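Below is one such protein, fold included:
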Amino acid sequence: MLLSWLAALAPALLLGAGLIPLRAGAVALRRVAIGASIGGFVLTALVATGLVIHGRQSSFFVHLDAVSGVMFLLVAFIGLIVTAYGRRYLAGDPGQARFTRWLCLTLAAVLALTISGNLLFFALAWIGTSMGLHRLLVFYPERHGAQLAARKKFVTSRLGDAALLAALLLILGRFGTLEFGAIFAATDALRGTGEPGIAIHLAAVFIALAAVLKSAQFPMHGWLPEVMETPTPVSALLHAGIINAGGFLVVRMADLVALSAQALDLLLIIGAVTAVFGAAVMLTQTSVKVALAWSTVAQMGFMILQCGLGAFAAAMLHIVAHSIYKAHAFLSAGGIITQRRPGQERPLPVAMLIPALGASVALVLVVGAIFGMPFFEKPGVAVLGATLMMGLTPMLAAALMAREEARFVALRVGGFALGVCVAYFALQWGAEWLLASALPTETSPRGPFALVWAALTVLAFGTLLVLNVLRRSGQPGPGLQAFYVHLFNGFYVNAWCNRLVARHWPLKGGV
């Protein structure tokens, strides 16, 4: 019980900081916020240590296991960094006190979400996180771009809230409880007994819908790349923390979602489309922050894709890695004085690029099999690994073109690629070991459908890589140039959404 009380104290500290009256002044508020963030991080570290020693603890109010412990510590760490950065970033801004208040309240809601002991508290923290983020997105209400993005986010979030509440009611009706510990025990009993029932399938589908709406999945992704009118600390918190809530919901409810092939297929299809689409558009962007935002769209697609393939531990590892990377990327983006202009690169013949691409994928298949994660059993791990290794393909192709006296370069590049691949699967193995006690060991039978979609996703990224190399290193034809222009604009999906929102919710003053 002590761990539960310590865990509950962390969001309580930030909630208390956020409830301090604004008349206390910006200086006093930011000092309290920093103190609450440090205190919260120390508490989460103590809770994580206690979990390692004592194992899982579950009650009506707080549920602590490997999944919640990892997310709890991650959010506290990101929150501390963002709070400290915001103190300097907004120094002298007349709205700093207001910003600090909503930042603390939002962080409190996210921390509460990660350790909620039942689905009702989870839903309340889920909605509270969205409401707090909305106030941060319209920190400068006079900016119409901020208003438009926040309104699209608001509509999408309310749809996600409705889906989560529908799942909540179905679960309550089926199990008679909303406590996570009891839900997980009931789903474990259902596993292997045959058809779980229509209520379980519907609840899993609604959870999947809530997750994709929260995670900016295609076609409801448009608001995320447009959230650039808010202070940089908000962008870092959003892209490194809050946007992961959808994926965390699926991982948290993995025991139930794994019972429904329909829910997993929905996650798989939407995640694959979003990952390929987001990555393709990202490659065409010229603004650093906009490119980072499209990168987040693609990464969230990968995370949802992994959940759809039953790779819940891989999705959790993805959340951690992406959060740390993206927080650093956004907080350091403003320090770039001159941007590198790609220009024209050394041509890479397709005759060299394709073999290098095949070698990259083959390396993933071989190393994955050695680690006990073959493609046919762990497609969610293999898909991301293959895409990761594709990033090294141009370097491998260039090494293959080296002259005889420079063959050692090819050996060095090959050794580096092997090291990256081994490190990737070692991390995946470690994540599975760490989270094994909190995640289901098997999912509903899928047949060849999941494998086909996984293979098509790898093929799509390979095609995207070839087209991008040809565009940057050669003289693209008019067809490729036209495709590039349309891709740069995201095939105008977001423009259509903007017109729809502006028609039904006209911009008039502040939000």
